[in-house]
Specification:
This protein has 24 helices and 23 strands. Helix content is about 35%, strand content about 15%.
Length: about 625
């Protein structure tokens, strides 16, 4: 059929389906009403691309814009390109990588605004399809509006900035190139090992050019999760390493969530009496009170999980890239520990000299269970999980006890106590990830999204919009500080206008408090982080009125005067989000220097030469920490 490049791309998007596989949430069809639309795949399938976030400009409004207008595909208008692309990332995380958000922009600044969102998706191994407009391939009208000319390479445009943060990048310079590139687009977005952002740069003249596309390109396809099984020799080696273990530890990462293997992981732990800890991306895979659950691991984790990690002799890491916050910059584990890495991506499985077991998390754990047979770890070691976690729970309970200026831990406690098994909670940056990772007690499986791969300020609000679109059950709550709110808040209006409700709890602590803590804890003077240390010509600088601002953006706004009042405000906000289908923002003043502390070390660059003796002392402490780092290669 004869179609323009843009029409063919949109028709192909519409034909791609996904298997939800028991996921209760996920966008079922174009109008988001939960009714199956019957396009290929039958019951249980849904659109792979449930909709497009768009800001139109001269680089995409005529080609892609007209193609979207004539197609049966939802289009949500954003108000900042980074924000709408982050909302698309939020859809992917909320549907456990089974659905993919799409974002399109014009050329120039609109395109570059989406590069940060690509970084978020790349760091977190999340699918995202970006469709930035591009300059004319003919170059006849060059230089066009918003074109950045490269003096030594006329073929370079700003869209080349997407290359380092894309798993697949292509500039479509001929309509027929779609026949080649679109299967690769689907491959990358749905592959458990290579999953990440895809960028298709679309020159505006090519968007409008036509070609006789083969009908087969638009045949409906249902993409089902690939579940590679482990190599038999690697499986035998992994099983042998575990049988030799006296103190094995199971670490669950995001790959467990995306494989929907949480139940399998818990059964593996139970059958073999292995204590379980979670990474940031693996949070809430295990019921909080499970006797083998030792808590979250690492710097923002728990002292309980860190205590077991320090004594473990074999670590089975499933679906995790073992980021520095998880490993406490590689001081969490004992010297000589044996790492067994079960991962769909060999890139991650081979890190740090691990015994690699390349497989889907669910299939890999199933076959590893069979290979281990009746083997069980020492019961006394297994019992340490609940013993240590009990001590950590008691510590968190003391932090949640009301008194004085409200703290992050107390705010998290209120939200936790009022949340149910279908609710979903989010955060991304500042001090709140440490509170949510370390202090949250799971009330439902895979119901936490802490974007701490890229730790992108602003994801909290934009990602919550995407999650609210994707999750049909429960209430989405996002927790953020005043800094993140000021960084990127435009998608509050986008969500309010579109009719997608969620709750945002804004903790106002007068600036970038967690970075102030990092600064002063390593000998520095308070400088340019808390407002009291920021340059101003005013003796009494202005303060942001977050509640008034949120109301002006079409949201319901609530002020909470203390922790007792927060419960009232949060209950009311949940009701608004659920019944009025718009964001509800709760604002509460919080303490700038009260934190949950897991007692782990983190490597940061402390100056070797400084004018403050406190910094020199901190540098020596950093050297001592580096001496404890476990090196495997």
């Amino acid at each position: 059929m004869r179609l323009t490049t843009a029409q063919a791309l949109v028709r192909w998007l519409r034909a791609q389906r996904t298997e939800l596989g028991g996921i209760r949430n996920g966008i079922r069809n174009g109008v988001e009403d939960g009714v199956e639309d019957g396009i290929g795949g039958g019951a249980g399938s849904a659109p792979l691309f449930p909709g497009v976030f768009a800001i139109f400009g001269h680089g995409n409004v005529l080609g892609l814009g007209n193609a979207l207008e004539e197609a049966d595909l939802p289009v949500w208008r954003g108000h900042n390109e980074q924000g709408m692309a982050l909302a698309a990332v939020g859809i992917a995380k909320a549907t456990h990588r089974r659905q993919v958000g799409v974002a399109t922009s014009s050329i120039g600044p609109g395109a570059l605004n989406m590069v940060t969102a690509a970084g978020v998706a790349h760091a977190n191994r999340l699918p995202l399809l970006l469709l930035p407009g591009d300059t004319f391939t003919s170059r006849a009208p060059d230089p066009v509006l918003q074109q950045v000319e490269h003096f030594g390479d006329p073929g370079t445009t700003v869209n080349d900035a997407f290359r380092p943060v894309s798993r697949w990048f292509d500039r479509v310079t001929r309509p027929e190139q779609l026949v080649h590139t679109l299967p690769h687009v689907a491959r990358v977005l749905t592959d458990p090992a290579d999953c990440g952002p895809v960028t298709l740069a679309l020159p505006q003249d090519v968007q409008a050019e036509a070609f006789d596309f083969p009908d087969a390109l638009f045949t409906p396809v249902v993409h089902r999760p690939r579940r590679p099984r482990p190599d038999t020799r690697a499986l035998a080696e992994a099983a042998d390493a575990l049988r030799r273990a006296r103190r094995p530890l199971l670490v669950l990462g995001g790959g467990v969530r995306y494989s929907r293997a949480a139940g399998r992981a818990v059964r593996f732990a139970e059958q073999h009496a292995v204590p379980v800890v979670e990474t940031t991306a693996g949070r809430t895979c295990v019921p909080h009170d499970h006797p083998l659950h030792a808590g979250p691991l690492g710097i923002t984790g728990s002292a309980s999980a860190n205590a077991l990690a320090a004594d473990a002799d074999v670590v089975l890491a499933v679906g995790t890239r073992l980021q520095d916050f998880t490993t406490a910059s590689w001081t969490a584990f004992a010297p000589g520990v044996r790492l067994v890495s079960l991962n769909a991506a060999r890139f991650d499985a081979v890190k740090h000299g691990a015994l690699e077991l390349v497989a889907d998390a669910d299939e890999g754990l199933r076959e590893l269970t069979d290979a281990l047979g009746e083997w069980r770890a020492d019961e006394a070691w297994a019992a340490r999980a609940s013993h240590e976690r009990g001590k950590w729970d008691a510590y968190v309970d003391t932090l949640r006890t009301p008194g004085g200026t409200p703290t992050y831990a107390q705010v998290v406690g209120v939200v936790n106590d009022l949340s149910g098994p279908t609710d979903y909670v989010m955060t991304a940056s500042g001090g709140l990830p440490g509170e949510l990772i370390g202090g949250w007690r799971a009330v439902g499986e895979a119901t936490v999204d802490v974007e701490y791969g890229f730790s992108c300020m602003g994801y909290e609000l934009a990602g919550a919009w995407g999650a609210a679109i994707a999750r049909r059950d429960g209430v989405v709550t996002t927790l953020l500080g005043d800094g993140s709110y000021l960084m990127l808040n435009s998608e509050l209006f986008s969500a309010a206008f579109a009719g997608h409700g969620f709750v945002a709890v804004v903790c106002d602590n007068d600036g970038y408090a967690v970075i102030h803590r990092l600064q002063t804890d390593h000998g520095g003077a308070g400088f340019n982080n808390l407002y009291g240390d920021v340059a101003s010509r005013h003796a009494d600088p202005p303060r942001a009125d977050f509640a008034a601002h949120a109301a002006a953006m079409g949201c319901a706004a609530f002020r909470a005067e203390g922790i007792a009042d927060l419960e009232r405000a949060y209950r009311a906000a949940r009701e608004v989000a659920r019944t009025e289908h718009r964001p509800a923002v709760v604002v509460i003043r919080t303490h700038p220097a009260s934190w949950t502390d897991a007692g782990a070390w983190w490597e940061v660059g402390v100056p070797e030469v400084a004018h403050r003796p406190e910094i020199a002392a901190a540098h020596e402490e950093a050297r001592a920490g580096k001496a404890r780092q476990v090196r495997y290669l």
